[in-house]
Amino acid sequence: MLSLDELYKRSPYAIQHIGFNLYAGILHHKRYGTNFKKIKSHIDSTEHYSSDEIKEYQYQKLMKILLHSYESVPFYRRKYSEIGIHPEDIKSLEDMENIPLITKEDIKKYPNEFISERFKKSSLVHGHTSGTTGAPLNLYWDEHTSVFNNALDWRQKSWGGITIGDKIAVFLGRTIVSPSKKSPPFWQLDRFHNMMWFSSFHLSDDHIDSILNTMKEFSPKAIEGYPSTISIIAKYALIRKIKIKVQSVFTSSEPLLDNQKSVIEEAFSCEVFDFYGMAERVVFATQCAKEHNYHLNFELAYNEIVSSDGNVMKPGERGYVVGTSLTNYAMPLIRYRTNDISSISEEKCSCGIEMDILDSVATKEEDIIVTKDGKMISSSALTHPFKPITTIVKSQVVQTSLENITIKVVCGEGFSNSDISNLVRSFKDRVGHDMNVEVVVVEDIPRTENGKFRWLISKVKLPI
Which InterPro entries has this protein been placed in (predicted)? Predict the structure, then answer.
C-alpha cells in the first residue's frame, strides 16, 4: 500500500492542492488551538520581564515539571530514586546541577519511559529529530506545547515587523510537488496561513524564473526557510535582476553564514532574523531587531551550558547546550544535553529585553547537493528519507561527482535490505532517478580533524 506521502507525490496537481490545504487546515487547528490567544497574551506580558522576574518564573515552572516528572514519568522516577534525589531538594536554579544530565542515547534506550503516564500516546503530537547524526529520535508533545511553540514563533516574527495574516513565502524541506515534476507550478498556496510554499527541489536555471516571478506576483512581506536555500534564491534574483522587496527574512535549521546573510539582504532589501532551536523543544533562541542577538526564550525552556564532564559553565564560557522543557508535560526532557556548543553571554542586550543572550552556536557543517539537471538542494531538505528508518545508527551523504552519491550508514539491529531499498528510492525521489545512489554499510563514520561531524559532503561546484 502506498504511503500518504507517496500518494500525494503521484497525484495530479489539483488533487495535491486540495490535500495540501486539508493538511494545512489540520496544522492550523493544532497550532492555533483554543489556548493560542491566551498563550500569546501571556508571552507578550512576560517579554519584558526583569532578570529577577525571569529567574523566579523559571524556578516556579521547573518545580512544577520536576514534580510532575517524578510522579508520572517512569525514567525519572526510577533514576531519581536510584540516586536519592527528590524535586523538593531543588531550592534554587543553582541546585539544578544536582539533577543528572540525560542524552539522546537515554531516549533511544528507554523511548517509552520518557512519556508521562498521565497522557495517552495516541493523543500526542508525534515528531522526529532530523536524524543527520544517527537514527531519528521519536518525540512527543502535548497540544499545549505545539500552541506555545507557535506563539513564540510569532514573537520572533513580530520582532521582524510581521504580524499574523501577513503574506510569507516559505522554502523548507517539505515535498510541495513531486521533485521529478518538469514544469510549473512548483509551489502551493496555503490558504489557512496565507503562505506560499515553494519546492526546494526545483532550484535550477530551468525553473528559477517561474519561481521568482511567482514570488514577485505573490508579493510576500516576509520569506522563511533554510538559509542555504534562500541564499540560492537571492543569488538568482540578483543575476536575473528581478527585484523582490520584503521586510524580513527568517532563517532556521542550519547555521546562517555571513555570505548568505549579505546576499539575502542585498537581493531582498531586508533584514535577516535567524532562529536557533531543535525538535526536542529544549531551546528557542530568536534574534532581536536592534542588535540581532540570540535571546533565549525563557518561557519554553531553562538553559544551561556544561563542560564535557557535566560541570555547569559560567557566563562567557563555552560548552554543551543543555535544556529543560518547561511546557511539554507529555514527554518532559529534564537537563537534556545536546551536541551543540555555545555560551551564555555575560552581557545584556541594549534592546531592553533581559532574556539571556546565546552566543554563536557551533553545529554541524552544511553543504549542498547539485543534481544532473542543475538543481541545488540543501542538506536540511535531504534528511526526510532517513526519518522513517530507525535502524540506522549514523549516516553520511557524499556526492563525489555530478552523477554519483554514496550514502554511508552504520546500521543497528534489524537493519535490512528493504531499508536500503526504501532509502535509495526516497532519496532518488528528491535528487532525481537519473542519479546513481549507493548505500554502503560501514563500521563507523569518523569526524573531521577539528572534531566536527559533516553529514553531507559535496565535491561538486555550485553552478552559480
Answer: ANL_N_sf (IPR042099), CapK_Type1_Caps_Biosynth (IPR053158)
Per-residue pLDDT tens digits for 271-328 = 999 999 988 999 999 999 999 999 999 999 999 999 988 999 999 988 889 999 999 9
Return left, alpha or beta for 84; rule: phi > 0 is left, psi -120 to 50 is alpha, else beta: left
CATH number for the domain running over 36-150+277-358: 3.40.50.12780
The 10 Å Cβ neighbour count of residue 342 is 23
Question: Among candidates 417, 313, 327, which has minimal Cα distance to 359?
Answer: 313
Q: CA–CA distance from 71 to each of 57, 62, 113, 299 (Å)?
A: 22, 14, 13, 22
CA distance 204 to 239: 13
Q: Which of 323, 290, 289, 319 is nearest to 305 (CA)?
A: 319
Neighbours of 192 (CB within 10 A): 17
pLDDT single digits (tens) 377-393: 877 778 888 878 878 87
β-strand pairing of 284-287 with 319-325: unpaired
Distance CA 169, CA 264 (A): 14
Q: How do 376-378 and 392-399 pair as beta strands?
A: unpaired
- Per residue in 190-238, pLDDT (tens digit) is 999 999 999 988 888 889 999 999 999 999 999 999 888 898 899 889 9
Q: Return the CATH number of 368-458, one of 3.40.50.2300, 3.90.76.10, 3.40.50.300, 3.30.300.30.
A: 3.30.300.30
Beta sheet of 222-225, edge-to-edge order: 187-190, 195-198, 168-171, 222-225, 248-251, 271-277, 284-287, 294-296, 357-358
Measured between alpha carbons, how far is 276 from 286 in angstroms, rounded to an integer?
7
pTM of the model: 0.81
